[in-house]
Write a structure and sequence with these properties.
This protein is 39% helix and 12% strand. It has 410 residues and is α+β, with helices and mostly antiparallel strands. Bound molecules: zinc ion. Zinc ion binds next to loops.
Length: 410
């Protein structure tokens, strides 16, 4: 929970719709930049490991975000938040499309929040927005450790170790200290990756425990730690788990187990690697039942799935679980053809398409790269297309063979 409790005397945040006055010179770009700045500030606050250790002054991105919001509110003739705690309340009580400044239509799903009102934690859309801002620590660590792991495995010519690494990130987002220490001895080759793993798995923050308990509880679906809510419940941070209905409690981690403490993957890896990885594993299983030969995370993670269909056509598929099609489109480009493929897809979970009727349109309108060869589809659509076993192949190979960064991470 973000360490910015309401202070006595703070006014109750506005919840009624805000009518933005005509603001001369206000552009969509200003709205995006300010929203990204706020999201980055909230992610910084969310990374504070223990609310009790939080000290002033606020980190620079947090103070900058507050300053930007106050100035904008004055411009928009709205009551500004007067402190960071008020800004936190603001973001937990007002949906993005009802903040005191306009943001471009389609940037975020209608009614979505920067902070989860029940946990005061940054939402998935908040992390997506922050990804384009000043890199919070966990993002830097996550990117570097993933790149290091791929490079180490490539240098050692150990694709099986890389596969074991990606499976670990998907299947075990939480490890005890003892498990983390003994992983290298389990014959998986993970002893090669001790350094990246120690960077990716960090001690779980105290904010994942309810105030009156020392127990961490994992989600029964995705195995990440559940968050305590303001009404003393537990909830998963993944939208994909929430749509399944009632929270399913999984394994409990107790500090008195003498197991070296509880460690959890950094949030960017949970959101952009573990979560989509669960869906990529499920998609691979469905495609194999249709007779396809599927390779997960080929060539050290070049892309998500290489699918060789019975008819001989090959696909490169990546599951993308992003709230914002606009932000997703900003990084849209076909993966490098290693291994080669005939068609390439970004497959989106149904929940994303249902939450935003403009999803496909926003993706088309905001693609900035050579997206025409990259096809955005729903996961179910992709399975239906595989069942039809297309026979005509459209060339999707990179004409230049120019190396591009590996896809599938952030
Ligand atoms: Zn979950």
């Amino acid at each position: 929970m973000i360490p910015a409790p309401r202070q006595p005397g703070d006014p109750t945040p506005r919840t009624a719709p805000f009518e933005h006055p005509a603001a001369p010179g206000w552009s969509d770009r200003q709205g995006v930049l300010l929203l990204r700045g706020i999201a980055t500030a909230l992610v910084h606050l969310g990374e504070v490991p223990n609310p009790g250790t939080f000290t002033l002054p606020y980190p620079a991105p947090v103070q900058q975000a507050l300053d930007g919001v106050v100035l904008t509110c004055l411009l928009m003739r709205a009551q500004p938040p007067e402190s960071v705690p008020q800004l936190v309340e603001w973001c937990a009580n007002l949906p993005i499309d009802n903040l005191a400044f306009p943001v471009p239509v389609g940037l975020a799903p209608p009614g979505s929040f920067l902070l989860d009102p029940t946990t005061r934690q940054p939402t998935q859309i908040c992390h997506e927005l922050a990804l384009g801002g000043i890199d919070p620590t966990a993002q830097q660590v996550g990117r570097q450790a993933m790149a290091d792991a791929a490079e180490i495995c490539r240098d050692d010519d150990s694709p099986d170790t890389y596969l074991a690494f990606r499976e670990l990130l998907v299947n075990r987002p939480v490890l005890t200290g003892r498990e983390l220490a003994t992983l290298p001895n389990e014959g998986t080759g993970l002893d090669l990756l001790t350094a990246p793993l120690r960077a990716l798995y960090i001690p779980a923050a105290a904010s994942y425990r309810a105030p009156d308990t020392t127990v961490y509880t994992a989600c029964g679906h995705c195995r990440a730690l559940l968050h305590p809510t303001v009404d003393r419940g537990l909830v998963c941070e993944r939208d994909a788990c929430r749509v399944l209905g009632e929270v399913e409690r999984g394994r409990e981690y107790r500090p008195d187990d003498n197991d070296g403490g509880t460690h959890q993957l950094v949030r960017p890896i949970r959101q952009w690697v573990s979560g989509p990885g669960i869906m990529e594993q499920g998609l691979a299983a469905r495609l194999r039942k249709l007779g396809a030969v599927v390779q997960l995370w080929p060539s050290y993670g070049t892309y998500g799935l290489h699918v060789l269909l019975p008819g001989g056509q090959s696909w490169a598929v990546e599951v993308k679980d992003w709230s914002s099609a606009t932000l997703l489109a900003g990084s849209a480009r076909p993966p490098i053809p290693d291994p080669p493929y005939d068609r390439c897809f970004w497959a989106v979970p149904r929940v994303r398409l249902q939450a935003d009727a403009r999803y496909r349109r926003s993706f088309r309108e905001h693609g900035t790269g050579p997206t025409s060869r990259l096809e955005l589809v729903g996961i179910e659509e992709l399975v239906r297309a595989a069942r039809r076993e297309p026979t005509a192949a459209s060339d999707c190979r990179s004409p230049s063979g120019r190396p591009l960064p590996p896809e599938g991470l952030f």
